[in-house]
Amino acid sequence: MLDVAIRAKSFRSADGTVIEAVGDLRLSVPTGRFTCLVGPSGCGKTTILRLILGLDRHFDGEIAISETGAVAAVFQEPRLLPWRTVEENIRLALPGASAGEDLSGLFQTLGLAGLETFYPGELSLGLARRAALARAFALRPSLLLLDEPFVSLDEALAARLRGLLAEVWSARPTTVLMVTHNLREAVELADEIVLLTPRPARVSGVYPVTVPRSRRDAATVTALLADLTAAHPGTA
Amino acid sequence: MLDVAIRAKSFRSADGTVIEAVGDLRLSVPTGRFTCLVGPSGCGKTTILRLILGLDRHFDGEIAISETGAVAAVFQEPRLLPWRTVEENIRLALPGASAGEDLSGLFQTLGLAGLETFYPGELSLGLARRAALARAFALRPSLLLLDEPFVSLDEALAARLRGLLAEVWSARPTTVLMVTHNLREAVELADEIVLLTPRPARVSGVYPVTVPRSRRDAATVTALLADLTAAHPGTA
Amino acid sequence: MHGLGGLGLRAQAWSAATFLGSLAALVFIWWAAAGLAGSRAFPPPQDVLAFIVTEAASGELAFHLGMTLMRVGAAFVLAMTIGSALGIALGRHRGADRFFGPWVILFLNIPALVTIVLAYIWFGLTEAAAIGAVALNKIPNVVVTLREGARALDPAYTEMATVFRFSPFRRLRHVILPQLQPYIAASMRSGIALIWKIVLVVELLGRSNGVGFQIHLHFQYFEVAAILGYTLSFVAVMLAVELLLLQPYERAARRWRPGHA
Amino acid sequence: MHGLGGLGLRAQAWSAATFLGSLAALVFIWWAAAGLAGSRAFPPPQDVLAFIVTEAASGELAFHLGMTLMRVGAAFVLAMTIGSALGIALGRHRGADRFFGPWVILFLNIPALVTIVLAYIWFGLTEAAAIGAVALNKIPNVVVTLREGARALDPAYTEMATVFRFSPFRRLRHVILPQLQPYIAASMRSGIALIWKIVLVVELLGRSNGVGFQIHLHFQYFEVAAILGYTLSFVAVMLAVELLLLQPYERAARRWRPGHA
Amino acid sequence: TDVIRIGVLKFGTVNWELDTLKRHGLDARYGLDVEMVPFAGEDATNVALRAGAVDMIVSDWLDVSRARTAGDDLVFVPYSSSVGAVMVPDRSGIRTLADLAGRKIGVVGGPLDKSWLLIQGLARREAGIDLASANDIVYGAPPLLAEKALQGELDAVLTYWHYAARLEAEGFRRLVSAEDAMRALGASGQVSALGYVFSEAWAGGHSRAVANFVRASRDAKALLDHSDAEWDRLHADGVIRDEGRALAVLRQRYREGIPDRAAADDEADAGRLFAVLAELGGERLVGPSPVMAPGTYWSGLTDDH
Ligand SMILES: Nc1ncnc2c1ncn2[C@@H]1O[C@H](COP(=O)(O)OP(=O)(O)OP(=O)(O)O)[C@@H](O)[C@H]1O
Ligand SMILES: Nc1ncnc2c1ncn2[C@@H]1O[C@H](COP(=O)(O)OP(=O)(O)OP(=O)(O)O)[C@@H](O)[C@H]1O
Ligand SMILES: [Mg+2]
Ligand SMILES: [Mg+2]
């Protein structure tokens, strides 16, 4: 269970302006559930993830995480260590116990096979994103935060990776919170979609996706999408 | 007129592996036309743009640019100078003559108003991308290269920016080459769509969009998309 | 945009308090240690202060300190300018670096004594020879530091500057120098210190005034209080430079870093 | 994965050729200049070489050079270890930096003479006092350089390490040190040079052997050839260290940079 | 046997005497073992004495007096009266002190050098000129100034006696020596310039050893005074680097500087000169006391002459 109760989060920029990034926002993701966060660009989504990850403690509110296992994140930018190879980057994120694990299957699926010894600076952006995904997946986290993980990928690949994410998610009980701008993606994957207002971010609506994942084919997804936009007009 | 004739481009990675990024590739964008480049992740698109921009001269082939005005690029990552404010970043890219220009309209349209004195590190990724777009647009280039400019933006905003791009493009004769993974976007904007093979990039097909831009409403675009995927199966 | 000293009043007061506390702690430790040692070789702060006061009253302190500061300043400007230019050039051009690398190592490791004596021999016992010799001693240090900085430049920004056709000046000022800032700061701080130490040697070997000259005079009589008096006067000037010039400049230069305040 | 010296044979040959060419050019310029000067104060290379040969044959050179290298090595290890630790700590903790900043400036600007004499007086004319005094002189320089490096650390990587729960050791080794590499390289190169220069003073002031001892003896007779002979012997050792240790290490450490080759 | 550790300059003049002393077993003859600890500079011997690494060094009475006033317990035993001299090239037109007016003069040791002050005093008295203000004075390290004088950049150079001797061998002549100045300013005879310096407390516990050392030292001087062969040996053994004319001049000047009268007379003259110096150099030279500190000359020296 991830329980977020932010009363306010603001930044003071270098020129002294105070920016309210997150307003009064309550959000909870039950253990083992998949929630998507959707909101306009610059509304505060990344800020919310950072607060959950404990990377910024200057805010008014409380965040409770009851998952005790590993936490993994896919940042909005790959954040690979440029001076370590792809494989080293992934292995470094693993705890000592699983350091020797066989990762070739994962590399294969992600189209990274043969690039294990490349440095991040030698990858295309899409490849680097996949390496960042591999790092998060390899860890088998019990809480997974994703910040627009499937951008910069061609549609075929993105679909494959969404499949992989769904697989990872169902193989072990994983609590997932994913930020995306792609509503179709959200509808395909999520148990619940949380819609945010423009900055400062507040919850503007919650859309539970009740259709079982196995039955979400192209047509169903399109229908769900229409339903969602009807229920929450202005969501594009 | 932009004339690209690459015979081969390969990289030698730090571990000595030789990677062929671009194969035999011929491409030409007539002056004032809008071409989209679509291809799977990691196929060599960014490499092609870098060769055109003259950032990498180690390749076999020739590239001729007959446009004499300014060249602007929107890189796949924003590449703003972190130690300069948003406004400074944009003004620094302007030649001395237009340094004092009024940019407030542009800031307004891009949703950057009020953030002029922010440093890039204080922006969300979407905001940073918009600043990078502003930098390219403000220059009024005669050759504009864009590498996936509209990712990390919510759909409403992306649509608005696509409109802005079309406007910029039609206001002055601009030759545009844009990389995208979003076929719908390509069909909406381009005069011609060039489809690339997986690495090493070669042209796998060319799809001219003959419908005038003014008549490309949602339904037409969907139809065109269907036509495109029928003509070039496997393009997703 | 804010001015250079973009700190709130409260933050400024806090900063001043920390500074004074830091000095007070230092003086206290010194005082206690000197008391324990009880040796003429380790005089307590009050003795040194007394010396400074006498020497200042006689005008000697200001004169010698002034001469030394003049030399330090001139050599500093020379060394930083030439050293930065060379360092950036070597850092950017691998071929030149390969060729001149061994020269840098050579000049880096020539003892101050050698440079200074040779400079005095060739150019006479003049001020210019003295300052030139000091600068020559420091230049290789600046070169090595800035060469590392130039090697670590992020090509992403250089490429951006190329695409948008930045003029060489714009590129230097807005793309290169901001990235080199930490390297420049490091070589400025350790630079002034190194230069001052070499100036001491120069003044010992062939000048008739300056702090180095005075320190050696007092060294002959083993007057540690006098030696410390002159040393601390110089350190006081450096602390002033640090507080009034370097730190505000760096605060401005680091404004953009997240959590800079 | 390749070994440390990940250079092709041809590249290696080319690199050796450049190195030799560089040295040859230097010796030639020296030779020509010495010919023009025609002064005892500026002997030509062959005179210096002759001195080195004689001194080496007598065993003196190896002995004094060995003593000096031992001191340089010990002081270097001490200064780099302590200085890096302090520098990183100050760079990461703003409060500590505010408080100890003035101390750093103070210690940075205390003349070598003062530290050395005080160390000798308090701890006796021992090897430990000598090495400690040298290290103490160099530590503040390492601190300022690494402090800048630590301040410039990219928080993106630190945050990643926090999220993925890197152990302190893993964080230091894989996240922090690689970012500090250019700063470490800069402070190693100028560090050895500075330490060697201070060792010369230490040897002048209280040792009965070492290159500094010899150089000052020869200075009394103005035997520039001998002074240069000793200087260049040390420089030769430093060039060897540069070629055989520093450069291969740096090549490995910079492998990841685009266009590093 | 008593061991005495003496800090010396490796190629310094003190070394000549001590090497002779050791070579001829003069220390053993007096039940001593003299151990020479070589250093590269005067400053180093000074530090070594204070750090307790050696028992004795060579320095001058002015320093000792000043140190005593400041609370150190150093004492002095005369060693040599060789002092510095103003040297000019042979062909130089400078013949008298008065000719020095308006010249570029190199001075070793700095503006408070004892010899320099005495010569200034002399110039003021004899020629009525103020050397320090009427000239372009360059202070600097002795080797550097010697080289500059040879190059012709300096018109005259005041330097230590052994540098002066070497210059003499290179075609320079003595214009005036500090000894001339001492006599003119009130000394009745040859005043020691340098002496063995050591801690009074240490000497108290080793008075026999010190007395014996002084005897051995005197024997060594006597040998050097009479035997040219000993000088050739010193050169052959590499203790003295100079040869030919330089060696001859050094030998002669060294011999002139061997103290030849009772320490008490020396002390009286030193006291007189101290007062003169106190006047010339003021507190900056002599320290807070205008008279020589009592006990500067070691009182344990009884059997002198
Ligand atoms: N400096 C380099 N060294 C080695 N390989 C490189 C280098 N730069 C790019 N590559 C390789 O070249 C191929 C093409 O890269 P490029 O960046 O052009 O792809 P892309 O089509 O832009 O992909 P994406 O859609 O993911 O951005 C990739 O396999 C990449 O790993
Ligand atoms: N360090 C900071 N200082 C000042 N303002 C900041 C800082 N970090 C973020 N902001 C501001 O907070 C707001 C929210 O930023 P955030 O990165 O959370 O947006 P986002 O929803 O992730 O946007 P995007 O979809 O574009 O990534 C933005 O307006 C941004 O400018
Ligand atoms: Mg974001
Ligand atoms: Mg790309």
Automatic annotation (TrEMBL), chains A, B:
It holds the Pfam family ABC_tran. GO terms for molecular function: ATP binding; ATP hydrolysis activity. Coiled coil: none annotated. Residues 6-223 form the ABC transporter domain. SMART domains: AAA (SM00382). Gene3D superfamilies: P-loop containing nucleotide triphosphate hydrolases. Keywords: ATP-binding, Nucleotide-binding, Transport. Belongs to the ABC transporter superfamily. This is NitT/TauT family transport system ATP-binding protein. It comes from Hoeflea marina.
From TrEMBL, chains C, D:
The chain crosses the membrane at residues 12-36, 72-91, 103-123, 227-246. GO terms for biological process: transmembrane transport. Residues 65-245 form the ABC transmembrane type-1 domain. GO terms for cellular component: plasma membrane. It is found in: Cell membrane. Keywords: Cell membrane, Membrane, Transmembrane, Transmembrane helix, Transport. It comes from the Bacteria. InterPro entries: MetI-like, MetI-like_sf. Its main location: membrane. It is a multi-pass membrane protein. PANTHER family: ALIPHATIC SULFONATES TRANSPORT PERMEASE PROTEIN SSUC-RELATED, ALKANE SULFONATE ABC TRANSPORTER-RELATED, MEMBRANE SUBUNIT. Belongs to the binding-protein-dependent transport system permease family. This is NitT/TauT family transport system permease protein. It comes from Hoeflea marina.
